Amino acid sequence: MANLILPDSNIYIGAVRAGRDPFREFAAGIDDRDWEFTTCGLIVLEVCRGQRNPDLLARYRERFGVMIFIPTTQQIWERAAQLAWSLDRQGRVLPVQDILIASHALQAGAAVLTLDAHFRSIPGLRVIDRLP
């Protein structure tokens, strides 16, 4: 079974700002690796809302459409609520969006590919800052 990687929105946004295609970077060498990329609705929303170029937006939607999609189930909402409550009680208040992204990753057993260090404070979450 392949390892799942859930790229955070900042990976896509950073690549675009640097003039790179994140999907091309994901595809590089994927045939030689034992991982697959996944996404969730929140990431699609965050990434697509910022696209100004309609052609690029269409290409992103097409690429997101073929990725493994983790739906936002009641179980994920419950996990996110419990995680937020627990982290808040420890004095670690994270953005709701990131708690929800982490809950998707935890539910699917995926690692989060991100540049945001606060993801590392989420118990049980595998976090990577570059592709293996």
What does this structure look like?
The protein is of the alpha/beta class and 132 residues long. It has a single domain (3-128), classed as 3-Layer(aba) Sandwich (Rossmann fold). Helix content is 50%, strand content 14%. The protein has a 5-stranded parallel β-sheet, with helices on both faces. Helix 1 (9-17) packs parallel to helix 3 and helix 5 packs across helix 6.
Chart the SSEs and their pairings.
Blueprint: E1 3-7, H1 9-17, H2 22-27, E2 35-40, H3 41-49, H4 54-66, E3 68-70, H5 74-89, H6 96-108, E4 111-113, E5 127-128
Parallel strand pairs: 1-2, 1-4, 2-3, 4-5
Helix pairs in contact: 1-3, 5-6
Oligomer designation: single chain
How many E strands? 5
- Counting DSSP H or I runs of 4 or more residues, the number of helices is 6
Residue runs with pLDDT of under 50 for 5 or more positions: none
Task: Supply the CATH class.
Answer: Alpha Beta
Tell me the strand percentage band: 5-15%
**Number of spatially distinct domains:** 1
CATH topology: Rossmann fold
Succession of helices and strands: EHHEHHEHHEE
| Radius of gyration over all CA atoms, rounded | 15 Å
CATH 4th-level superfamily? 5'-nuclease
Shape type: globular
- Rounded to the nearest angstrom, the distance between the terminal CA atoms is 16 Å
| Main sheet strand line-up | 3-2-1-4-5
- The computed structural class is alpha/beta
Biggest sheet features? 5 strands, parallel
**What is the name of the CATH architecture?**
3-Layer(aba) Sandwich
Query: What's the overall average pLDDT, rounded?
Result: 92
Approximately how much helix is present in the residues?
A: 40-55%
